[in-house]
Amino acid sequence: MKKDEEFDLRPLPFADGIHGGVSASGWEQEYDKGMNEQLITLLESLDDDAEKYHAAEASPNHLSYDPSAPALPAADERTKAFKPSQLDYMNVDSAELWSPESEPHSIFNDNHDTAKVKLHRIFYLGLVFYELFSEGEIPPPGLVSLVASDEAFVSLPLSDESDHENCACGPKRRHSSASHVSRAEVGVCQSSFEYLKLMGLPNALCSLIFNMLESIHGDFSGNECYANIVDVASDLQHFLNKPCKFLRDLDLNGVSISGLRLNESVFSNQEEFASIQSCYRRSISESCELAVISGESGTGKSWLAQRVGSFIAEQGGMFLSGKFDQMKQAKPFSALASAFDQYCDTLIREKESHWAKLVVCNLQVAVGDDAIHLTRILPKLKQIMTCDSIIADSAREQNCLNALQRLCYLLCEFVEVISRCSIVSVTLFMDDVQWADEASVAVLNRLLTKGHRKFFLLCCCRDDEMCNENPFWKMIQNVRAFGIKTTIVESSCMTNDTLNEMVSDLLCLPPRLVRSLSDILHKKTKGNPLFFSQLIMSLNKDGLLRLSLSRGRWVWDEEEIQSIKLPENVALCFTKGISKLPLEVQSALRVLSMFGASIKCKYIQALESQLNVKLMEPLTVAASEGLVSNLKGSFHFCHDRIQEAAYAMIEKEDRCRDHMMFGLCLVNLSLNTADVDMLFMAVNQVNLGGPSAVLDEEESAVMAKYNVAAGKRAMEMSDFSSAYDFFFYGMAFLPDDHWSNHYQLSLELHELASQTALATGKFRNLGNLFGEVLRHGHSFEDKLNIYFIIISSLGYASKFSEAFEKGREILSRLGEDLPSVPSKEALNQHIQNTQSLIRGMSENVFLNYRLMTDNTKLAAMKLLSKMQTITVIVKPTVNPFVTLKMVQLTILHGMSPESPIGFVYFGSLLGKLGNILLGYKFILLAKRVLHKLAAKNVAGEVIGAGIELECFMEPLLAANERRVEGESAALMAGDVQWACLNRMLYCFTLLWGGVNLSAVHEAMSKACRFMKEQGHRTSLFIMLTGQKTVLALMGSKAQSLAHEEHSTSVLETNNPHHRLILSFHNLYRSFMLNDNCAVREYAEEFFELEKNSWCMFSGSIVQTLISGLAAFQLYRGTHNAVWAERASNRKAEMKLWAEQGSSWNFKQKLLLMQAEEHFSNGDLESAQECYKQATEYAKAHKFINDEALACELAAKFYLETCNLISSMEYFKLAHEKYIHWGALAKAERLIAYAKEKLAFLGDTTTPPFLMISDNSGSRTSDETDPRKRRAI
């Protein structure tokens, strides 16, 4: 090859730096430009040569002697004229010097010749490299003389095996019985190495050239020397791929001081990292995602997550992190609080910026006064939110389940605000989620199912500690069911090759040189990254892996490392390491391990003071050993396995005693300083100690009181799972005779445990708790709270009949009786009594009315408010008595927080009795009283129930928009039931209001998802029923079997309200799709179920319309007077609403019913006029569904009266309106219906309304043919 064509021998920039031309930093900036170009050129040449090498190895005869090759100069001239770049190093065997005739024939055969030629190529390539990187200098004379020396190869034959099997840390020689190379010859190669170092070449490149040159010594070359071209090419490729690792010398001074240092990038798997990157990018552009890094302990999960965090930060994203604690030491929602506090810290630092002010403003709008609930778990919010936005919480007893739902809602709003106000994405990283508590998992579930854009949840968990019952595993299944994309990334132990690459990167040596070391390490650690990291750091500490200052690289002793005996797992490895530390440090680590993953420094200092032992100083020593870290005022174990190892060093019999001792040291201090975090930690230590560590009964009662205090604080933070645990432990501490000697404490513990068990779904435990109180309670008043919880639990279990009977029994004992078999006379009497009480009272009187103070009456109002929903479902005839009782108690005893509920249902009752105007006034009164009392806990119900009557007085869709406010108010109070009901009623009003069915379907789909998320089966059943109706009208094939199964399970509760709704939708679908046989069946069922309803629902509007129209149709077909009476009653009801309510909603509906009545009575002229007006009013009032229905019924009317032209005109209009509404299936049925009817007239052509003309004004002969009229 030609020198100028193959290699660029211009002075390299790093060489200039040695002589003062370029600074050291300049070399670091410039070496890529020079050296990489040179190496790339060499590597491209070697790629082809490596292929030739493989071919030659397969067929040794390929490398044949070429007699036409030029001979080398005489030996005495070589030193002066030697130019290795003028030789083709791949054809060195063609030179005269290397012809077989010039070698001792007894040594050579084909195989020997192949091995010899391999080394010749490598050696000559070394000469080329030497000339290249020495700026064209000729090699030392000794190198050239080696070329002519036959003795360089007397040790052949050489083994073809690679150095992977025999690499070593030092210059050990291959063993051979043959003659050996002289020291002078070895020194020649060494001198070339030293000269290149003087030229400023990196140590790795000097070693590469040295090892190529020394390969000419055959078996007597070092183990690191090359045996084939492929290894040379591989090392060069690594140099190019990672120049900062291999082409930059170690900082010997720095490394000598610091020793071997690991970093997370060493342990990050690129494929796993890329997978999570993809998840993150999708969460920004599409919707929120969940990624879970799963694997056994020590496989680098947290390292990978932190690498992802660095990537997100580089991309400008927000990375918030928290860690769950194995020993449950921290306060409620501690992991979430830790993550969101990081965001609050940022807000505080930048509070004067426009961005921070925007976030705070939006937070105040989103959460308002309820910020107080967030500040209990995010105390730093108090420094951000203005004082006016944080008010004292109401002292009223809270509904536990509602409080938990409220907190979930508020945290979702918090994330929504920070996502909306930030131009960057929000990533929440939760570590060790296998230990996550149920309350935190519920929040994470809500954050995901809420579907925030620019939100990414990244979690780490140990797969060997996950099971089907784990809360986080259940959450994964749930979010997947909601369609949230979930990616599980498996983090496993390293393969041998992966570990080899890692050791290569760590020691800055090519993988070829560290292969034997990595094989030993993999065998001992099974590829576990944590185990590996501890082992290699231990080897460095013990001097078995050390820095050689003379060689400028890491060296090791393989035999010693191979002989080391290691523990079976990494925890024992940590234990062994800890046991080597001073006793004070070991003791401090054991103390720290008893508090879980971390503990604040101030608590350690408090323990030092209380126990009079040194802790802070020894822990600082432990931090220098890399076992713990001191970050942000807390000591953290660097890995969970370290904590487990330290904890395992404590004798089991000593653990309970020590936990109790530490807890008692801190608990009184926490109560005196009002430090909530310390209280949780201290009481948890007491509970870990357990009753066996208590000395006497009095101390047991004290421990129970500590748990009551901690549980109540957890309830204030809406963490009812932790609260239940505290109460459970408190009951465990109670002595055997606690009901006798500690009655009030026992009663309080059982009541609180019952409340929190209900809120967290621990229904199996409720029976025992109820039984204890009912057996040992001294009075009915003492048992009253338990009775309330019993009724609530029956309602949650859908046992409404049992709940009603139990509620009626308790109300009777409170002095408020409800009739078991109500009569009209009794109802009329109650109505008259109520009217006499409110007569003459103005709105101002109500708004300034006295407050209720009688505890018995307050309890009755609370229970009556629960009975409202129960009676609507299973005892609708009793429902008006419940409403009237609430109003009467309010007038007689004063306003209670539940009074607005009584007023809103009283307004609904008045509307049902025919006085819609007065009912509407009470609806408005209920809202004003609600605001006056600030009764936020019932706001969702009052707003939602009130809008039901407002839909009769105001334009339907205008009133419907306020349901969004009702849903938000319900969620803010944690009232899941009314949040779902408001959403459900909103969707149905869209349907009955004539909104396009595609938009209705989309809204219903979102509502179903929301109800599944909230776990509200009742509203979900009704929503699915409505969605089935919409899909039937649209003609979609998505009639899911899941809906039928859900309907069956709900109807098994024998709920008459559900049956009424299901019956109406069956009637509506059969009527709209012209299934006349089914219309009669469902109409009979509906009228039977509907007669007991006493509430004004907005759905009653369409129920009255459709059932009335169906009754008119059935009367015309059967001439049964019952159907006429039913139809007439429905028309009268509609007329009342049209007169007292909004004509916008009712005018066209009334006209349509009047038209059907005239048609049924034979008054065709009046019917014709009413049909016309009904279509006109429906169009004017923008009810396209009513307009389409009116046109359809008018078309049928004209068809049956033989006015085919008018019939076809109305059919055409109806068809157009149904298409516009989105009811495609209904439009198709209309065509089929018209074809069927026209077939009776002998016309089988396409229905005329599809091609009707405007120039026909006379009646056809078909219209006047009496036979065809009779057929119609």
Provide the fold topology:
Elements: H1 3-6, H2 13-18, H3 24-58, H4 75-81, H5 110-133, H6 141-148, H7 183-198, H8 203-214, H9 229-241, H10 243-246, H11 252-258, H12 270-285, E1 289-295, H13 301-314, E2 318-323, H14 334-349, H15 354-367, H16 371-375, H17 400-421, E3 426-431, H18 438-449, E4 455-462, H19 471-481, E5 486-490, H20 496-507, H21 511-525, H22 529-541, E6 545-548, E7 553-556, H23 558-563, H24 570-579, H25 583-593, E8 598-600, H26 601-611, H27 616-624, E9 628-631, E10 634-637, H28 640-648, H29 652-673, H30 676-689, H31 697-716, H32 720-733, H33 738-741, H34 743-759, H35 763-776, H36 780-796, H37 800-813, H38 824-838, H39 843-847, H40 855-874, H41 879-893, H42 899-912, H43 916-933, H44 939-953, H45 956-960, H46 963-972, H47 976-992, H48 997-1014, H49 1017-1034, H50 1041-1051, H51 1056-1072, H52 1076-1090, H53 1099-1118, H54 1121-1140, H55 1143-1161, H56 1164-1180, H57 1184-1200, H58 1204-1221, H59 1224-1240, H60 1261-1264, H61 1266-1271
Parallel strand pairs: 1-4, 1-5, 2-3, 3-4
Antiparallel strand pairs: 6-7, 8-10, 9-10
